[in-house]
Amino acid sequence: MAKRKTKTPTLEELKKRAATVLSRLKRAYPKPSTALHHSSPLQLLVATILSAQCTDERVNMVTKELFKTYRTVDEYATTDPGVLEHAIHSTGFYRAKARNIINCCKVLLEKHKGNVPGTMGELIQLPGVGRKTANVVLGNVFGRAEGIVVDTHVKRLAERLRLSTKTDPEKIEQDLIQTIPRKDWIATGNLLIWHGRRVCHARKPKCPECSLNDICPSADIVISLPPPSPSQRKA
Question: DSSP character for 151?
Fold first, then answer.
């Protein structure tokens, strides 16, 4: 098993690679959207805050009951912290998350009439909301591409595909923005997240069955493995 040798790609080469990656992933995941269950901007905002250091599957299990109990911004803002902490305990870091959700909703009431704002500048001013959370809400609720979601999956795939050499999520986002057209910014985060969840796992990536293994600088080459099918490779 040998690792593919690479050289530092030019910006144009990165753009071409990114375009190929997105083309193939769009066929693999035709309707990319967030895996977090929600039916309103508030629900997605809360779910994304809960998703920090937690799987989407776990968050969905928690919010299935949480959203029955808390239906409005006011209900979150006025809840007893201990009660909310108990409800979200299994997502981890529950005290900090409960505090952020409560304080975030207080600000929504004080400054936004109880509505989730639809701009990056306003969202990142909310307690517990950074660019990742803001991008999730803006892209999946408002359809606004103001950036690219960079979570642990996107960070891992951007590194493995050599689309970025950075480690800071905001710097990775800036690298991706330079190589990917704005019209694809919303889809990019969702596509990379789905691929990271299903194929490009952190510990044991399924390189042999990955439709990107012939263009991925990190893919281990096993001579006996068949290459991706023509339908997978078309870009």
Answer: -
pTM confidence score: 0.87
> How far apart (Å, rounded) are the C-alpha atoms in residues 99 and 81?
7
Phi, psi of 99 (to 5 degrees): -60, -45
Nearest to 161 by CA among 186, 208, 196, 132: 196
Q: Which residues are known catalytic residues?
A: 132, 151
- Which residues on neighbouring strands pair with residue 221, listed in sequence order? 2
**Amino acid identity, position 204:** K
In DSSP terms, 2 is beta-bridged to 221
Measured at the alpha carbon of residue 128, what is the angle toward residues 175 and 44, in degrees to the nearest 5?
85
Whether residue 187 contacts residue 22, with contact meaning beta carbons closer than 8 Å, is answered with: yes
Could you give the domains of the chain?
A: 2-30+149-233 (1.10.1670.10), 41-142 (1.10.340.30)
pLDDT in tens, 200-209: 999 999 999 9
CA 2 to chain centre: 31
- What span, in angstroms and rounded, lies between the C-alpha atoms of 91 and 48? 11
Residue type, 154: V
Check: CB of residue 157 under 8 Å from CB of residue 191.
no
* Cα distance between the two ends of the chain: 27
- pLDDT higher than threshold 90 for residue 106: yes
